[in-house]
Amino acid sequence: MATARNEFKLIGPDWERYNRSAVTLSCRLSPEISAVNMEIRWFKETDCVCVYKNREVTEGRGYRGRVSLFTQELERGNVSLQLRDYRGSDDGYYLCQVTDGDRTEEITKMQKKFMDKASWIYWSMALCSGGERENNLTLLFFPHPPLDKDFWDHQSDREWTEDERKKMEESVLLTEHSTDEIKEKFRNEWRDSGLSTNQEKKQYGGKTSNIGWRIV
Question: Which stretches make up the Ig-like domain (predicted)?
Fold first, then answer.
């Protein structure tokens, strides 16, 4: 039987540990189909981190200049979130939602800066003393002491309450509304200072040219 056009699910590594200046919460579509024309939302708890819609990325308040999607890889179904300038407040649960038509899929990720070396030694010894299974898990995921910039994330089975989801929707609306206000402010300043009053000018060989802002 043929697969429906918008049939997909979100997948990510069960565990991932990395050391880099920019943290990536890995997530992709399965099967590997294009997400270019889909809507992508990332949340930190109930706060909107970013929204991809109509081929544009809008950053949430508190995340401007710090987050991005791999837009060049959306064609291959990569909807991962990259987070720069990591802060302690960035630890926590993240929800990724991808919508295509009337179908929405989501996945929850737990992101955390790794523990310090002393805690790693204590935690590893405690697990290793628990038996073969715990020992194997320790060696697999945490075989070496953490570095200063070690992070880890894993897929979570956290359930989101109806109240939390309501706050998420409100956060998205606030993010989109704030962006519209900023664009409108620039439009007004551009119109008042350049197009309408003709006050912003430069001389080029006896000629004058208006200076304006291009609103994307």
Answer: 21-108
* 215: pLDDT strictly greater than 50: no
Q: What is the mean pLDDT of residues 105-125?
A: 67
Domain extents in the chain: 9-115+145-184
Percent of the chain with pLDDT over 90: 45
Per-residue CA distances from 39 to 13, 107, 155, 172, 210 (Å) = 22, 14, 21, 12, 38
- At residue 175, does pLDDT exceed 60? yes
Report which of 155, 165, 158, 167 is spatially closest to residue 10, judged by C-alpha positions. 155
Could you tell me what percent of the chain has a pLDDT over 70?
Answer: 58
62 near 47, Cβ under 8 Å?
yes
Checking if the pLDDT of 77 tops 50, the result is yes
HSE, side-chain direction, 13 A CA sphere, residue 37:
5
pTM for this structure? 0.69
Picking from 80, 19, 16, the residue whose alpha carbon sits closest to that of residue 52 is: 80
CATH number of 9-115+145-184: 2.60.40.10
Name every residue whose Cβ is closer than 8 Å to that of residue 111 and which is 6 or more positions away in sequence. Answer: 23, 25, 83, 90, 91, 92, 93, 94, 151, 152, 153
